[in-house]
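anyone seen this seq b4? input:
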Amino acid sequence: MPKFSLPQVILLTAASFAGGVILSMLTSPRSGTENRKWIQDNTGEVKDWVGSKGKNLKNKTLPDLYEATEELGLTEEDLLPDRD
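predicted toks r here
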């Protein structure tokens, strides 16, 4: 079984959940108008929560390059190509 990275697992989980929601809406006894109203009434809070978690995840996984390289101790001379 292949190993999945964290973004792949998150994407697979979200796609599976969305597929389940769509399938349940298609097979529910309520009308489309009632389903759309229910979705609109119940997804605002979830949308905000997912947005905040996504921003937090992005901030944790992408380090600031200036902070990451600050401790390397390189000078400008180290970065210039050698002229032999």
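Helices lie at 6-27, 32-42, 44-61, 65-70, 76-79. The mean pLDDT is 81. kinda curious what u guys think
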